[in-house]
Amino acid sequence: MNHHDTGYKELFSHPEFVQQLIEGFAPPEIAELMDFSTLQNHSGNYITPLFEEKFEDLVWSVEITWDGQRQQVFLYLLLEFQSTVDSSMPLRLMHYVACFYDHLLKTQAASLKQGLPPVFPIVLYNGNRRWTAVQDIYELINPEPPAFLRTYQPHLRYYLVDEGRYTEQELQVKNTTLSGIFGIENSSTDYPALQKAVDGIITSIQADPNKDRLDKIVTRWLKRHLQAAGTQINLKQLNSILEDKNMLAENLQNWAQKERQEGRQEGQSLALKKLIQLKFGELPDWAEQKIAQADSEQIDLWISKLLKADSLDHLLHED
After folding, report:
1. Angstrom distance (rounded) from CA 75 to CA 96
2. d(Cα 292, Cα 313) in Å, to the nearest integer?
3. E-strand spans in the chain?
4. In terms of CB atoms within 10 Å, which of 17, 87, 106, 195 comes out highest?
């Protein structure tokens, strides 16, 4: 299981983050209808025979007022953090929603006589590639049927939240804990952007009346995220993103400096190897190993002496 899935499933098990997702990233006309004080978690595991998989989704209900009437809407949230874009997503969502409706009928939470409740399917995606899959299953039907057949074709559209499409500035304007989390996800090893996102999260948590609760939730998520990112920060010391913010900032800065240094050294090593290949031909294994074990200062020294070296052995074994 992807660490994003695990961490986000915990985040969106709390109503604050569901509300921030809808208010900050869904169409405003949808959010305006919702009474977020009525959010109720219905998440569970469902068997989907069509895809031969057991999937864990997140399902919330919320009451809306429409045409003067109160009714329940289900928010169907699917976390999608695969390395590649899934072009079958419209088909998957249609099947998942059908399975969910079947679950409501079997548990008598809904009936065909009273009518099925509306569902708002949301795909939350975090990947390096931008999402390119179509969002309505009708768009998969090709060629498009003639007019008299179109009305008989399936239609189900999901709403996409592609985190990577949001710029740092757009996320800062939203100014919520969740937008800060998206900012951390997007920043990777970009230390200034990462620290800005952390600072934004701290500010939003401090202003929240439930800041102690939010602090614990976000700290757990952040520790999991930093561990998966390989930051080599002593996460045992991070118990509160609010109380330990100075220690966290110092550790993030040290990690960023180490990343830059390692990146510079990797670039030096590649440059040295290319120059050696141009002058002496293919590198033997012993030379590859010696370069891999060298520090940045030593690699710089070899590069400076390369032009005058008579042989590879003379270059790499010279003191």
Report:
1. 13
2. 16
3. 34-41, 45-48, 53-56, 58-66, 69-80, 119-125, 159-162
4. 17
pLDDT digits (tens, 9 = 90+) for 233-283: 667 778 888 887 777 766 666 655 555 565 566 777 787 788 778 777 788
Contact indicator for 125, 185 with CB cutoff of 8 Å = no
Torsion (CA) 87, 93, 95, 99 in degrees, nearest 10: 150
Q: What is the pTM of this model?
A: 0.76
Whole-number Å distance between alpha carbons of 212 and 203 = 13
The answer to whether the bond into 143 is cis (omega within 30° of 0) is: yes
Q: Assign residue 125 a region (left: φ > 0; alpha: ψ between -120 and 50; beta: otherwise).
A: beta
For residue 222 the two structure tokens come to 């952040």
CB 124 within 8 A of CB 21: yes
**Contact between 97 and 104 (Cβ < 8 Å):** no
